[in-house]
């Protein structure tokens, strides 16, 4: 019999070995099929690291802002080292493909947890498009998620006014909770804050419309938290501080110069003292006076402050502009009896909010929520950065040398070698070798150019702080990568770095197949990891920071109708080029201002008419090249580049600059931002006549032009010389890429006035301080509508020492529709 079909039986050991191998293969394959988070949860035992997450301010936030994420970590297992990773989730996918399983960006921070340890960390993430939550992952050293948790976020609805309250005891705010603002649908939401929840970054405080400091131990705040509060006010925030019997613990630790008063002690107001501001709400139903004696702090108003309410010689309500913001002081504590239970408490709070908060409290009800950042000038800034980057093509001379060398070898050299060796078969060998060698050289040059010519361009705007506040700098960085793969970018400065939201809205980073972005804040800046970058793409990053600067700009300037005279001194460590003094409607060129230089000024003042300041600078500087964002070769000189940047920052998309022919914006006049021009104010005194032609800009001060700093009589702008040495460079993969770096400095400067003046609109500001009725509308800045009821405005004239005012005349046009 044949043994051909006989199959030897495998031993039991061999069978077990095969089963083990198959099981290992199946397990290994399953690890690629099961989501990483599911594996992490299934592999986590009963002990080990854990976390708890809270985001926003009681989950609330104002759209297009940085929000805090509070993470409580604990570890009941062995020592642990890993990373906390925060991702945002999208509630409105129509604004961009944000809901995919691979989020476009994450914010990471390294942590270590000893066995039995607990730790609290706070991170900040930007939130756009009405996002409704964040997801926090705790990653091990291999990058695997071992535990995750979601946290809810709720964007503030249209008309909501978010007020932060710093108070040791959150009682006595019943009157504030019941305030009804005059705009339809506007609601007041209070958010209690303390030393653990108070943000240490000014950009995060922009979620609040106002902050109230009342009976609070300010000494419990860190230096960074107090600095953030000061910076937030300087950048346009509104603070209300209460004195009263506990004023020392509340106010004594605030920065010098922040308060509008100097406090000396405590006292008592007698019953029956008026507690509502002059010309305050008229519908108080007789509840305008203190029902019983009230404990107060005794103070003296400082120069530059406005005393809103007096009791004899004692100031009760004092207001002061601090930078671009406002600080209001109350001598009494409205959360203590007898005022807390007083029937007029809600009316008092309403008057304080309207006077301190101004138009933003009303405009909130009309402000769109969740709008795409693609509708902002940011997209124009990105396009401008790309057009300013140098050409990435190889040098024409290098290509010419390569081509000539190739032709010489194929021609004269080949013939000479064949003649010398006297072998004709070498001709095709030399030709073939030349083709191979020069093909490799060309390919190598292309690879070198592709892999090493990353470009970076940045535009920074630094606003010097007023009254000792830190400077605020926002930087737009465009990184052009010529090859596909991962790129590591180091951004110097503060911890607030984010990918451009415009890219996200347009389906750029984060779309299927596009890169993820990982941001890791550090002590000396932030590291950004661009993963799976597409070839020949620009990635835009935005950083924001508040920083203390050495030196600044000091001025002693006097303005009359025809001349600006005085001195400007630069105490910064670097010089400034293309320097201008900007007034409402007026730009005056100063040229170059070196470090430490004092410049004498005696120049005529000419109103530029209805053109933006950027247009005035473009025409007066004689820029003779048209700027188009898509034209790479249109901006060759620093002056041309500066003019284009100013135009873009002013919100003028696709502006064209050419030889001045009587117009400055595509053949027509570029108008300024809308402002109310229907009121003119005149005053006569001491031989001087002051006419504010066109009237003050209500509610906007002199900030109608984007290049002006609100709250400052005048603004100096200039471009930092040698920006690369004055400010740290961005690095890509550890190297410094080619490109440009421009830093625009905006500095507030003071003015004195003399002689007969004829000041244009914007030199005086006005604000709404009361409105009766609940249907107030603000269709545009400085324009108000009210079908029934009344409105009360307050106007402030420029500070003019030694001028005796005999009277003021206010004129309203007969046809009010002419100003709309």
Topology (SSEs and partners):
Blueprint: H1 12-33, H2 36-43, E1 49-55, E2 60-61, E3 65-75, E4 80-89, E5 105-113, E6 118-127, E7 133-139, E8 145-152, E9 154-155, E10 160-166, H3 174-177, E11 187-193, E12 210-213, H4 223-234, E13 238-242, H5 247-251, E14 261-269, E15 294-301, E16 306-311, E17 314-322, E18 325-330, H6 345-357, H7 359-363, H8 378-388, H9 396-421, H10 426-452, E19 455-463, E20 471-481, E21 485-491, E22 496-499, H11 501-505, E23 516-522, E24 525-533, E25 537-547, E26 553-559, E27 563-570, E28 576-583, E29 586-593, E30 598-604, H12 613-620, H13 638-649, E31 680-685, E32 688-692, E33 697-698, E34 714-720, H14 723-726, E35 731-732, E36 738-749, E37 752-753, E38 757-759, E39 765-772, E40 777-780, E41 783-785, E42 790-796, E43 808-811
Parallel strand pairs: 2-9, 5-23, 10-11, 10-12, 12-13, 13-18, 19-36, 26-37, 32-38, 33-39
Antiparallel strand pairs: 1-3, 3-6, 4-5, 4-7, 7-8, 14-15, 16-17, 17-18, 19-20, 20-25, 21-24, 21-35, 22-25, 23-24, 26-27, 27-30, 28-29, 28-34, 31-32, 31-43, 34-36, 39-42, 40-41
């Amino acid at each position: 019999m044949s043994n051909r079909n006989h199959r030897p039986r495998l031993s039991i050991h061999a069978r077990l070995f095969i089963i083990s191998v198959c099981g290992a293969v199946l397990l290994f394959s399953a690890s690629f099929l099961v989501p990483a988070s599911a594996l992490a949860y299934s592999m986590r035992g009963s002990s080990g690291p854990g976390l708890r997450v809270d985001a926003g301010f009681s989950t609330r936030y104002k759209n297009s802002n940085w929000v805090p994420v509070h993470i409580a970590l604990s570890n009941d297992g062995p020592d642990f080292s890993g990373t906390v990773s925060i991702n945002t989730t999208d509630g409105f996918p129509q604004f961009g493909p944000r809901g995919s399983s691979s989020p476009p960006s994450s914010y990471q921070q390294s942590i270590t947890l000893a066995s039995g340890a607990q730790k609290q960390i706070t991170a900040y993430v930007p939130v756009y498009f009405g996002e409704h939550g964040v997801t926090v992952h705790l990653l091990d050293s291999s990058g695997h998620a071992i535990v995750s948790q979601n946290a809810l976020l709720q964007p503030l609805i249209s008309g909501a006014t978010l007020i932060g309250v710093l108070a040791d005891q959150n009682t006595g705010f019943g009157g504030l909770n019941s305030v009804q603002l005059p705009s339809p649908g506007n609601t007041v939401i209070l958010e209690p804050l303390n030393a653990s929840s108070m943000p240490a970054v000014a950009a995060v405080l922009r979620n609040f419309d106002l902050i109230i400091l009342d009976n609070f131990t300010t000494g419990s705040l860190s230096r960074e938290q107090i600095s953030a509060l000061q910076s937030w006010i300087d950048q346009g925030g509104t603070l209300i501080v209460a004195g009263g019997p506990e004023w020392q613990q509340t106010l004594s630790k605030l920065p010098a110069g922040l308060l509008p008063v100097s406090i000396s002690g405590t006292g008592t107001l007698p019953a029956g003292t008026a507690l509502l501001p002059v010309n305050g709400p008229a519908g108080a139903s007789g509840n305008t006076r203190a029902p019983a004696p009230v404990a107060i702090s005794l103070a003296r108003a400082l120069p530059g402050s406005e005393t809103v309410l007096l009791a004899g010689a004692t100031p009760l309500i004092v207001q002061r502009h601090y930078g671009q913001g406002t600080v209001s002081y109350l001598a009494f504590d409205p959360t203590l009896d007898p005022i807390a239970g007083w029937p007029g408490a809600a009316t008092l709070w309403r008057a304080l909010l309207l006077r301190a908060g101004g138009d933003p409290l009303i405009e909130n009800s009309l402000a769109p929520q969740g709008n795409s950042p693609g509708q902002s000038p940011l997209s124009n800034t990105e396009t401008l950065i790309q057009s300013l980057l140098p050409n990435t093509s190889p040098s024409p001379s290098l290509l010419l040398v390569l081509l000539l060398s190739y032709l010489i070898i194929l021609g004269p050299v080949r013939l000479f070698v064949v003649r010398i060796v006297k072998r004709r078969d070498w001709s095709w060998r030399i030709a073939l070798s030349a083709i191979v060698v020069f093909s490799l050289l060309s390919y190598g040059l292309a690879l070198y150019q592709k892999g090493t010519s990353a470009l970076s361009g940045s535009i920074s705007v630094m606003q010097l702080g007023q009254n000792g506040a830190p400077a605020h700098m926002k930087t737009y960085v465009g990184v052009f990568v010529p090859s596909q793969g991962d790129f590591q970018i180091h951004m110097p400065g503060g911890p607030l770095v984010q990918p451009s939201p415009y890219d996200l809205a347009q389906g750029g980073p984060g779309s299927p197949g596009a890169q993820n972005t990982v941001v890791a804040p550090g002590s000396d800046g932030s590291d950004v990891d661009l993963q799976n970058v597409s070839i020949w793409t620009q990635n835009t990053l935005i950083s924001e920071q508040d920083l203390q600067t050495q030196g600044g700009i000091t001025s002693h300037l006097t303005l009359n109708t025809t001349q600006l005279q005085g001195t400007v001194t630069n105490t910064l460590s670097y010089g400034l080029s293309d320097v201008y003094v900007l007034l409402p409607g007026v730009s005056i060129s100063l040229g170059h201002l070196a470090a430490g230089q004092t410049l004498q000024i005696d120049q005529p003042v000419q109103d530029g008419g209805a053109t933006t300041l950027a247009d005035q600078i473009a025409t007066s500087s004689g820029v003779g090249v048209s700027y188009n964002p898509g034209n790479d070769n249109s901006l060759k000189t620093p002056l041309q580049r500066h003019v284009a940047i100013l135009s873009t920052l002013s919100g003028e998309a696709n502006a064209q600059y050419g030889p001045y022919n009587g117009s400055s914006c595509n053949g027509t006049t570029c108008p300024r931002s809308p402002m109310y021009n229907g009121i003119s104010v005149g005053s006569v005194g001491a031989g001087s006549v002051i006419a504010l032609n066109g009237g003050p800009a209500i509610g906007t001060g002199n900030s109608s032009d984007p290049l002006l700093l609100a709250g400052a009589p005048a603004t100096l702008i200039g471009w930092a010389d040698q920006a690369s040495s004055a400010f740290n460079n961005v690095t890509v993969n550890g190297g410094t890429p080619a490109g440009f770096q421009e830093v625009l400095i905006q500095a507030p400067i003071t003015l004195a006035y003399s002689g007969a003046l004829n000041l244009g609109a914007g030199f005086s500001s006005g604000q709404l301080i009361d409105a009766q009725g609940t249907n107030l509308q603000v269709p545009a800045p400085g324009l108000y509508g009210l079908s029934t009821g009344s409105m009360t405005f307050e106007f402030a004239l420029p500070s003019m020492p030694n001028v005796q005012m005999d009277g003021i005349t206010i004129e309203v046009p007969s046809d009010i529709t002419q100003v709309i």
